[in-house]
Q: What sequence folds into this?
């Protein structure tokens, strides 16, 4: 269990909103703003850009809670030097790895100088999981291929023999059972799929509770018609799917990657996709955006989207609201629901 954060040192905590416009206007709803102003004294970033580390440091004196989002400067020892009252960093986005340095975690939550971290990855995960289901369905039914054939002038491409499949009864392999993987598994189960999971950190009882079958990577790749990637980038997962592993994927299968590109060996993936053996939906790339002449752009058996799986109106307008709720728990001295601890980082995105 994470250590509970020390609550604000004052009954009127100072809350610094580091999120600049125009992003703040997109992720802070009127209702969330009203809740926020009921919690303490609010100070906004009105510079229209993210602060540098030194600019942020100049503003942390007397601050109890820092609410931030994409573009937050790393919280180094120098930045935290003036953070005399900071007890909570509530991050209205996903991964905290870009800014959560050892200096933050050295200040143990619950101690007089401790800093707790909360994040909204769970909220983005809902949108990514839904997108993964959509991409899997598009692949199983060959929607993108049929659309391209129609636009190219095919008389009636549905008459062309092209294997399509229902997802009901389909065996779906989920790689990684973190925030997104768990939600994706539920959605696949809801439409009747049989879900297998590869996650060395998921205990057998955890898999059983979620109704999924734990499998070794090779077994899953050979056995599942859909393979949906939801792995974080770690030393263990970098290029986890190389030439050998991709070669195990069955003909006619669907590979979906909404996680990170470097989980898959990009050159090996290109070689496999060039054979036309299976279909892929890719939302992430080694280089973003991929060059205009990248081979993926001309492949018929690939659906390409520009790293948008987590970007929905609903998820964006929930981000700061979720962290306002965490701030309210902190002010009331209640346990955080979405806390990140140092020992969690090794297996997180």
A:
């Amino acid at each position: 269990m994470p250590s509970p954060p020390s609550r604000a040192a004052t009954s009127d905590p100072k809350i610094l909103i580091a999120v600049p416009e125009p992003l703040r206007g997109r992720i802070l709803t009127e209702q969330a703003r009203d809740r926020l102003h009921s919690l303490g004294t609010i100070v906004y970033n009105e510079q229209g850009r993210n602060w540098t580390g030194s600019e942020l440091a100049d503003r942390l004196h007397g601050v109890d809670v820092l609410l931030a989002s994409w573009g937050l400067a790393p919280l180094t020892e120098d930045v935290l030097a003036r953070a005399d009252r900071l007890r909570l960093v509530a991050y209205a986005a996903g991964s905290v790895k870009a800014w959560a340095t050892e200096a933050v975690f050295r200040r143990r939550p619950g101690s007089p100088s401790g800093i707790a971290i909360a994040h909204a990855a769970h909220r983005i995960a809902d949108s990514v999981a839904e997108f993964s289901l959509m991409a899997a369905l598009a692949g199983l039914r060959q929607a993108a291929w049929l659309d391209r054939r129609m636009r190219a002038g095919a008389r009636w491409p549905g008459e062309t023999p092209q294997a399509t499949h229902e997802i009901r009864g389909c065996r779906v392999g989920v790689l990684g059972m973190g925030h997104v993987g768990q939600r994706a598994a539920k959605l696949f189960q809801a439409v009747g799929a049989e879900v297998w999971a590869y996650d060395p950190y998921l205990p057998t009882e955890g898999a059983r509770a979620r109704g999924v079958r734990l499998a070794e990577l090779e077994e899953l790749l050979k056995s599942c018609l859909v393979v949906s990637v939801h792995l974080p980038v770690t030393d263990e997962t970098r290029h986890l799917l190389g030439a050998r592993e991709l070669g195990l994927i069955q003909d006619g299968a669907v590979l979906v990657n909404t996680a990170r590109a470097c989980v898959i060996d990009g050159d090996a993936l290109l070689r496999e996709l060039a054979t036309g053996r299976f279909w892929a939906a890719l939302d992430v790339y080694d280089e973003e955006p991929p060059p205009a002449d990248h081979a993926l752009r001309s492949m018929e058996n690939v659906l390409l989207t520009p790293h948008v799986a987590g970007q929905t109106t609903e998820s964006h307008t929930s981000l700061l609201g979720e962290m306002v709720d965490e701030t309210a728990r902190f002010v009331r001295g209640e346990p955080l629901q979405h806390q990140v601890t140092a020992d969690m980082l090794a297996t997180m995105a």
Summary: The two ends are 20 Å apart (CA to CA). Residues 128 and 181 are 9 Å apart (CA to CA). The chain has two domains: 14-119+313-347, 125-304. The chain has a mean pLDDT of 93.
